[in-house]
Amino acid sequence: MAERSTAAVDVADNSGDQPLAAEADKATADGVDIQNGRAADGPMTEKDGERTSAAPAAAPELHSGHKLARRYRLEECVTRVDGFSSWRAMDEKLRRAVGVHLLPADHARARSVLAAARSSALLGDPRFVQVLDAVEENDLVYVVHEWLPDATELTALLAAGPLEPHEAYQLVSQVSQAMSAAHREGLAHLRLTPSAILRTSSGQYRIRGLAVNAALRGITSDTPQRADTEAIGALLYAALTQRWPYENDAYGLTGLPKGVGLIAPDQVRAGVHRGLGELAMRALANDGATASRQEPACTTPEELAKAVAAMPRIRPPEPAFTAPPEYQHTTYQQGTYGRPTPPGVPPTQTVTVVPPPPPLQSRTGRALKWGVAALLIAALGLGSWQLADALLDHRPQGENGSSNNNQPKNQDAPKAPERVPVAIKKAEEYYPDGKPQNIEDVANSYDKDPDSYWRTYAFDDGPDLGAYKKGLGLVFDLGSEQDVSGASIAFKFGGDHTTATIYAAPSMSSSTPVGSLQKIAVGTTADRQLDLAAPAAVKTRYVVVWLTAMPESGASEYSRAGYKQGISNVSFFRNS
Q1: Cβ–Cβ under 8 Å, residues 173 and 305
Q2: Which of 3, 251, 298, 447 keeps 20 to 30 A from 288, CA to CA?
Q3: Do 184 and 88 belong to one domain?
């Protein structure tokens, strides 16, 4: 298949999908979704003709470092379920991160997965995570797709709360239009869950797993357009209410009360946008719901996209207004507006403009004006002489009457504020991407023991982590709100270079994206110690230490050589 040059993007497009049968029970019992390392999503519901085939043999036993086609180096397994595995990998030819699905060539679904991947690749729509390669080689079938490091799953967005109306409008508009285009080409998704929807840093929504996710799990439907439309309706319902529109909890969301059926979004949460709530009900009408205004149900993504377009446009929220500071005088920058800068006045000097008094008319007025001017000049001259005389009289004198330059200076200068340590009550690992590093050793990061430490994985590229993830780190609980003015961080490894930022966080949850946190201070070091000082103290109870660059270090007793870092001690302080 011809290679396409696309930006490095997100990992396995099966994140958040559900394991089947016995494996699902085991994953739930362990409290972990074996697809992506997060808390297991709700059980998958079969409806409207969806079918899943029987689970085949186990996935191929591969390991990190294995290379496919002498090009794709496997880095980390993110899924191993139902006879296939999914990996984060590195395309060594183009030097970019990619995702890879792997299954044996004799897998019962191998042929359908290859066909689905190649059909999805031919679509070439940038609103979908792109399939880059689909190959059968050495008794393996593998599908290579984009990796989106700057994107956030809808699952994580909803964990922080319902979306505001404009954002929910953008979600349903973009997803319905994209799926309408896919269905025109004969492609269905059949696994449109919150984990399949990604929001990029630019505000665009991308859909992953088109056709491939369903093929990997053997899911089919007799009414694919209706199934995808209802799934979009469920996504919109969840975006408006932060509730899953069925009785079972799923994807980190609480389901509706049992026995009441599907109720309108504005009956679940106050303040829901009326038009969007009715639209969600029209898309979900296939499951027994009725729209409040009795509009016809939307049974295809195209009908839903048209219904969205027919709505009055929902404008983005107005930015918060900040009152400007009060000024007592009108000022301007000398030298602007084409005026030359007077000699001796720096270009950036601010000059206060005092409006002149109204001109005096008549000959008497002119005489008074010159008389007043003469008096002012005389007064200024007298004042200047008196000031100079006073300064000379009060100047410190030595024994011979000369000025004494040996007197100590700045005796009354204010002392620098003293740094007061802030106690840390507990800490947890902070991993918004759902991939922790070393949870069991978090306490070593603040135990005052220089020989113990929390460590990261070793990565093959660096120092910057952009090829793999946005960053990684820890979140600390100070016990109560404190005025945090800075931090001191002792690292395990020195070298070029470590970059760390401290943020104020609303809680210890990893579901809060880094972009929504308040930055306190940032710094970079080439040695093992980094001291951070904030321009102004920030009041917070929870502080995140976030690493975005790490030095290259050799192998140690706990990890291989690579770009990595360890934190042996973190301390926060406030100014006295």
Answers
A1: yes
A2: 251
A3: no
- Strand-pair category, 243-244 with 254-255: parallel
CA angle 142, 148, 151 (to 5 degrees): 140
Strand ranges in 201-290 using DSSP code E only, listed in sequence order: 205-207, 243-244, 254-255
Domains of the chain: total: 3
Mean pLDDT to the nearest integer, 82-102: 91
Distance CA 80, CA 57 (A): 12
> What single DSSP character describes residue 417?
P
Hey, what amino acid is at 38? R
Instruction: Answer whether the bond into residue 166 is a cis peptide, omega within 30°.
Output: no
Average pLDDT, whole number, for the chain?
79
Of residues 371 and 286, more confidence is placed in 371
Helix axes 301-310, 224-241, angle to 10 degrees: 40
Give the Å distances, CA to CA, from 345 to 339, 356, 476.
13, 22, 51
Whether residue 496 sits in one domain with residue 468: yes
Per residue in 109-121, pLDDT (tens digit) is 999 999 999 999 9
Q: Nearest Cα to 419, choosing from 572, 570, 539?
A: 572
Q: What is the rounded distance in angstroms from the CA atom of residue 441 to the CA atom of residue 450?
A: 14
- Report the distance separating Cα 511 and Cα 160, nearest Å: 7
Cα 71 to Cα 103: distance, rounded to the nearest angstrom: 18
- Ranges assigned E (strand) in 152-253: 152-153, 197-199, 205-207, 243-244
Please report the pLDDT score of residue 372 as a whole number: 65
31 — alpha (psi -120 to 50), left (phi > 0) or beta? left
Are 45 and 134 members of one domain? yes
Give the per-residue pLDDT at 60: 54
Determine whether 334 is exposed, middle or buried from the number of CB atoms within 10 Å of its CB (0-12, 13-18, 19+): middle
C-alpha distances in Å from residue 23, one per residue of 32, 218, 451 = 11, 16, 40
Determine how many CB atoms are found less than 10 A away from the CB of residue 324.
Answer: 6
Check residue 286 and give its pLDDT. 58
Q: Which helix (H) or strand (E) holds 120?
A: helix 110-123
Contact 142, 135 (CB under 8 A): yes
Question: Distance (Å, rounded) from C-alpha 320 to C-alpha 277?
Answer: 26
Place of tokens 């929910």: 168
Residue pLDDT, tens place only, 25-65: 333 333 333 233 333 333 333 334 444 444 444 545 688 88
In the prediction, which pLDDT does 325 show?
53
In a domain, 108, yes or no: yes
Helix extents (H) in 257-415: 274-283, 301-310, 362-393
Q: Which neighbouring-strand residues pair with 484? A: 538
Backbone region of residue 434 per phi and psi (left: phi > 0; alpha: psi in -120 to 50; beta: other values): left
Query: Is pLDDT above 50 for 260?
Result: yes
Report the CATH number that the domain containing residue 536 is assigned in CATH: 2.60.120.260
Residue 232 belongs to domain spanning: 152-310
